[in-house]
Amino acid sequence: MENARVPLILFTGFLGSGKTTVLNDALTQLRDRRVAVVVNEWGKLPVDGALLKDPSGLGVVEVAGGQIFCSCVSGSFLSALERLVALGAEMILVETSGLAKPATLGELAAEAEKRNGGILRYRGLVCVVDALRFGRLRSVALAVNEQVRFADRFVITKADLASESALQETIDTLQSLRPAVPWALRRGEAMDLEKIIPSFADGSSMVKKVEPFDPQWSGWGLGGSPASDSIVPAGGVEKSRLESFLQRLSPETFRIKGFVYTPMDTEPLLVDCVEETINLTAWEGGDGRAIQGGLAIIWKKQAPSREKLLELWTSITATEGRLLDAPVH
Questions:
Q1: All residues at 6 or more sequence positions from 67 whose CB lies less than 8 Å from its CB, including other chains
Q2: Last residue of a domain, which of 178, 196, 217?
Q3: This prediction's pTM
Q4: Domain residues for 202?
Q5: In sequence order, which residues have a C-beta less than 8 Å from that of residue 105 and are 6 or more positions away?
Q6: β partners of residue 270
Q7: Shared-domain flag, residues 190 and 94
Q8: pLDDT per residue over 230-241, tens digit each?
Q9: Is the domain of 87 the same as that of 170?
Q10: Most buried pick, 37, 84, 218, 221, via CB within 10 A?
């Protein structure tokens, strides 16, 4: 029966677009379903797994060190799907890396279905689009256009923060690129589930046709694959010094995120930086999951040497730290 099959839905969107927020909107409304969650991290440091809700108690499965459409981690991703199906998941939602390049989506979806004997069925890709940055990012990151090209649904975030002209330009661009793909706006408040993903009570699918691989999406463009680093502090960091460090690095980065403990607090600060916009908030997760301290950094251009980065960290924060091994992409 179609209704007994397990829908697989992917969420993509460039770094800082709001994928985790949109996915949590959906998960909050799926408490009565046995929903499994997979999060794909570009770097080695797990961050988003702690931020995502786990309504069914199956745990948030983390696949780190690359993007799931690449052979570097696709095997781990497919194995994770097999385990979740075996555990009785009724639906699997996946947050892909912000640097996901889904040109091999058709092959990956077909392999996932094959490995699970047809029980798992790919049901679509939701592309989360940042209304504030979409126009600019399209010109500097090839992955942005690739994510749009393979989308089955768009969620346009930060619609409440963008000017009307910028918002309309984003909508017009998406409609010109993918005229048959529906879209919805997120204006700072939680979205209704039906605006994010359709009802699966009847086994429906967002997918009209999975696009075949197109060689135009090979590679990363002129800038190459973005470099990343992960810093793990050796101890607590004063908030003011942490802010100074982030201010120094943020203009050179697409994204800095993670958790950092201060000397006096038992709960960490959540660090959430999108380019030069820096947010530090007290973490109030409260679900008992262990939080690993550290910062994941994704650079816009050439990264500083690892020695220089550690020197900056130590000189600004007055705290020792170590770098995790960089993933191979």
A1: 40, 42, 73, 96, 97, 99, 100, 101, 329
A2: 217
A3: 0.91
A4: 2-217
A5: 10, 69, 125, 150, 210, 211
A6: 259, 281
A7: yes
A8: 999 999 999 999
A9: yes
A10: 37
Task: State both tokens at 82.
Answer: 């097999």
- 217, 250, 270: which is the final residue of a domain? 217
Report the number of secondary-structure helices (H) and strands (E) in the chain: 10, 13
- 253/196 same-domain check: no
Tokens of 16: 């800082």
The span from the CA of 16 to the CA of 13, in Å, is 8
Asked whether residue 213 falls in the same domain as residue 111, the answer is: yes
In the three-class reduction of DSSP (H, G, I as helix; E, B as strand; rest coil), residue 263 is classed as coil
Residue 121, beta-bridge partner list: 7
pLDDT in tens, 178-236: 999 999 999 999 999 999 997 654 455 666 566 666 767 676 666 678 889 999 999 99
Computed on alpha carbons and rounded to an integer, the radius of gyration of the chain in Å comes to: 19
205 and 56 in a common domain = yes
Helix axes 164-177, 142-149, angle to 10 degrees: 60
